[in-house]
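Researcher: I'm preparing a figure for a lab meeting and need a structural model of a single chain. I don't have an experimental structure, so a prediction will have to do for now. The sequence is pasted below. Please return the structure as C-alpha cells so I can convert it later.
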Amino acid sequence: MDILNELPEEKFNQVDDLLAFVSIYDDQARLEAYRQMLNACRDKLRGQVCLEAGAGAGVFSEWMARMGARKVYAVEVNPLLCRLARERLAHYPNVEVIQADIQNFKPLEPVDVLVHELFGQLLYDEDVLALENLPFQPKTMLPARARLACGCVPASRLVDTTVTPSVLQQLEGVLVSGLFDEEGLALTDTVLTWQPGAVQCSVEKDISHLSGELLYFGLEIWFNGRPICRAGECSNWSYVWTPRAGNRFALRFEPAGRGMQVRFAWLD
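Model: Understood. Here is the structure written out cell by cell.
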C-alpha cells in the first residue's frame, strides 16, 4: 500500500506506520505464531503486569488481557494507532493505552512481561534496538531471541521474463525485499543474532562455501529453543535478495531518523 497524495511529513509518517500495521495484521501466520507463544506463557501472564511495546492497534494487549493479566500497558507512539487501540481495548478495564515512545515510558509498577514485535526484515533495520534503552527492566521479554540468516541459490532457478539476468546485473550491491516469491528456502548460515543485552549490529561474513549466484537473507524469530516464525512462512517478512558479487560481504546498521540505516558492501 502506497500513499499517493502530498501530506505534511508528520502526517505521512503516521499514516505510513498505520498502513504497515494493516499489513502486519494481515499476516495470519505471524499472528498465529505469537498467539501460540503467548498461550504457552499463560502462567507467566496470569495475574501479572504486562506491556506491549509498539502496540499498534493493541491485538497482543487484548490477548494478554484475556489470558488473565492483572494489568496491561499498550504503549504506542503513533497517535492514529493509539486511537484504534483505545477503540479495541475500551472494554478491558485492566488495559491502559499509552501514547509514548517505549524508550521514554516509565510504568508505575514493575513490568513482569514485555511483548514486542519490533523486528525488521533484516532484524535490526526497524526498532528492536529500542529495547536496549528502556527506563525499566521487565522480568521476561517475549520473544527474546531472533537471528538473521542467509543462503544462496542458482540464478537460473528464479529468473524469468521480468526479473532477467540483465535486471539482476543492475542490482549489484542493492538489497531488495520480495524480489522473488520463493518460499521454504534454507536459512542455514547465521549472519546476525539478537537477544536482550546481546546486540550485534555489524558483521563481515564469508560465504565462499555456498553455491549460487543469488544471495538471500531471511529473519527467524525464536521461542523455547526453536523458530516460531520465519521469512518465507510469515508473509510480512519476505526474503531480501541481492546478486552475488563475491565471497565476503559486510553488513552493518547505523542510527537514522526513523529506524536504522542499512550499510551493505561486497568485500571481495
